[in-house]
Amino acid sequence: MVALIMPKSWLADLKARLASPTDPPSQSDHHLGILAFEAAATMARLVSIHNSLASPHILQLRSDMRSQAISYLISPDQPYLLRLACADILSDLDRAADAVSRLSFRCRSAFPRAFSTTYSDAKNGSLMSLVEEFSLKNGSDKRIRKMDKQVAAAARLYSEMDTLNDLEASERKMDEWKKHSGPIPMQQQQNAAAAVDNGSDLLRRELRAQRQRVAKLMDESLWQVSFDKAVSMMAKAALSILYRICLIFSQFVHGLPPVYYNMYDSLYSYTPSPNRKAKAKAKSSSGPMAMDSPKPPIYETAVRHSAPLFMRKDDKSKPLEKLVRCMVPPPSTVGSAGMALRYANVILAADKLLAMRSGDPQPSDQGDDGDEEDEWGTREELYEMLPVGVRAAVKAKLKECWKKDVLAIADRGVADGWGQVIKGLLSWLGPMARDTERWHEERNLDRMQRFATGPRTLMLKTLHFADLEKTEAAMVEVLVGLSCMCWYHEQHQRPLSRSIQI
């Protein structure tokens, strides 16, 4: 009979995995430790959301909503666009709150340990009572600055630990080389041994210094911070950000928790300033009736002019759940077809090709094989990226142009006209394509991207919600114009022995 002996480390790991999340943490688990990186990533997400809600970014968002690309490809309806922006920011905050909830099970204090229930209650209408209870109106910016510093320290620790791992791997390789090196002549053996000893001493000194740096950064970062302190900071930040979202969007989006603001609060500057003319008309608008008072009210509700958007009587789902569901692109959009990033790459390649073709080539450039090969590579790449349907539409429109007037295409004025048309289309297609590419880059699996605290690109500004038919029609116009421009340049300025027709 063979007895199966389980390693102690495996049993300890099994006990940790099978432990109930409601069990109180032990004394050894009081600090974050390796979970400092998960906490730092969550803090970075919270700081990013906070920065995206600053006044300059909100004003820029309102300006982008009126841009030609969003108005034409997505919708000119401002309430609908605000609803999409709010849903995107709120879903990002929900993901951060989920991460905070996972860490809160390790806490000892009542508030951070019950954050999951607290955040759910805040979304269901008790946000203002929590704002008053935890004094979230004051100290929000200070809390964000502290988290920003903690994120930077965690990022440095992560980088230094990577360097330490590389040095330790080099040390192991050197030890293996010493063990398995074959016999060599005496003189060469002495020289090699001296060189190895010098290299080993240098590596050990560098390794010792690196371990000291890592130990110092551990003491200065979230590694030695308690769960209660870190989670409490993140929980209050999440609630204050939710309050901020409601202040900004609740006038336009139905279903957000009702909030009130004080004109002397630090967060008041992030809400639209009240208009006296709008107040005068408020009595005839839907919603609570305005009451005359001999004293000016201290608080103003942020939901006075709010009204249900896209709600039906038979809809029994919660408003916030319906709001988050609107982030799914409709069937007629580019995002629903799964072509957002591919179409963005096509538009960016067309923009690059236009930059190569803009203006007449200089005489010194006519013999530049490098630029010519680069252009051919861009054209081949652009052709390979085209879906079958778009490729067929481009060929059909090119045949139509050739049938109308072949000589007109060879005219310099017509070629310049095509160039102006393409520049006009790419002036608003290009930024949306770049935002689409940036949106995917911000959500990739890059490890250091987890600690980025800058405002993220909203899905509203990408091709995900763009109308598929309109987007493809604009792309066809751009590609047909580029084909005519390339044909004109090849016939009159750069006669080539080969040709690729899109």
TrEMBL record:
A Pfam match: DUF668
DUF668 domain location: 333-438
Region annotation (Disordered) ranges: 275-294
Superkingdom, taxonomy of origin: Eukaryota
GO BP annotations listed: positive regulation of growth
DUF3475 domain mapped to chain residues: 34-89
Name the record gives this protein: Plant/protein (DUF668)
Organism: Rhynchospora pubera
